[in-house]
Design a protein that fits this description.
Blueprint lengths: L11 H53 L21 E4 L4 E5 L8 E8 L2 E7 L13 E5 L41 H55 L10 E6 L2 E7 L8 E5 L17 E13 L5 E14 L1
Antiparallel strand pairs: 1-2, 2-3, 3-4, 4-5, 6-7, 7-9, 8-9, 9-10
């Protein structure tokens, strides 16, 4: 009869040592992953700010282009005609009037920035609340700076020199403008729209150029592929057991060129090995070929190049035969 074995456990010291080692491992893992997690979160926040700012700027540009469009001025009632399309123009804020949203009625729109971000205030023309930034809708958060530049018809800055801060015609935010003087505003009125259209035109031209580059890149890549395919076919045509090498130097095909090289594992003649396939092994005594038939295997690499470093490569393995032995 065997004696019962004692069931020993861990001592308190052993448990504390094990927990301490495990804690050190956890701290090490945390030190490795925590910087990566923080960097990811920072990148996400920066990306969100950039995306929001870009959307807000696009929206501002589209709406400011509609400055001065007063539907009230095209009806038969001349008593409701409006003017002063540019209400307030400062270094850091702009208030314009018109039907910017296509609602059929004119309003004043103030674009400004406060501690929360970029805002747009929409309200009745002449009402003080329409020119108070805190009353606006938040267009983009975390915007740290907003500045406007103004130019006259000769493309000279207004004011000249453009030393900030400045309020054109001394009109500022917080209250309805008095329109005591409209000298500076009249200089800027038509030019703001022209500048916005110019910037939009430059953007569209650049976008069209980018689309053209993409189309040309696709065309050159496709042309390089066909040049590489031509190189493979040239290499195949040159394959003859014991004949000339299949390696060919670069050959021009208009704007493209091709070259042929030995494939991986092949010698300078592109030769890999010889195989005997089923159906081509004719034994002795049949009256045909006592040695049978084999195939010579070759590896070929065709390379095609085109404009702007466009390049494509095709690897091919081909067999020559059957060849009587």
């Amino acid at each position: 009869m065997r004696p019962l074995r004692g069931q020993g456990g861990f001592t308190l010291v052993e448990l504390m040592v094990a927990m301490s080692i495990f804690l050190l491992i956890l701290v090490g893992i945390f030190q490795v992953f925590d910087p990566s997690r923080n960097a990811y979160q920072v990148s996400e926040r920066k990306l969100d700010v950039q995306q929001n700012a870009r959307v807000a700027m696009d929206r501002m540009a589209r709406q400011i282009r509609m400055t001065g469009y007063f539907p009230e001025n095209i009806d038969n009632d001349n008593t409701n005609d409006l003017s002063n399309s540019i209400q307030i123009a400062t270094e850091s804020a702009l208030s314009v009037a018109g039907d910017l949203d296509g609602t059929g009625a004119s309003s004043v729109y103030t674009f400004c920035r406060d501690n929360s971000g970029l805002r747009r205030v929409q309200g009745a023309i002449g009402a003080g609340a329409s020119y108070t930034c805190a009353n606006g809708q938040l267009m983009a958060e975390s915007v740290t700076a907003l500045s406007f530049a103004y130019f006259d018809s000769a493309n000279n800055p207004v004011p000249n020199p453009p030393t900030g801060p400045y309020n054109l015609d001394a009109e500022g935010l917080g209250a309805a403008p008095t329109f005591a003087s409209v000298a500076q505003r009249s200089i800027v009125r038509r030019v703001v729209i022209m500048v916005l259209l110019l910037v939009s035109g430059i953007f569209l031209v650049r976008m069209s150029s980018t689309e053209g580059d993409i189309a040309y890149g696709s065309m050159w890549a496709e042309g390089s592929f066909f040049a590489a395919d031509a190189g493979v076919n040239v290499g195949i045509d040159a394959i003859v057991p014991g004949g000339p090498t299949c390696v060919k130097a670069a050959t021009s095909l208009g704007s493209f060129s091709y070259s042929v090289a030995a494939g991986a594992g092949a010698d300078a003649n592109c030769y890999l090995n010889t195989t005997q396939r089923a159906g081509y092994s004719i034994g002795s005594g049949t009256g045909y070929n006592p040695g049978g038939f084999v195939f010579y295997n070759y590896a070929i690499t065709g390379s095609g190049t085109g404009p702007r470093s466009a390049q494509r490569t095709i690897d091919a393995q081909v067999s020559y035969g059957p060849v009587a032995q």
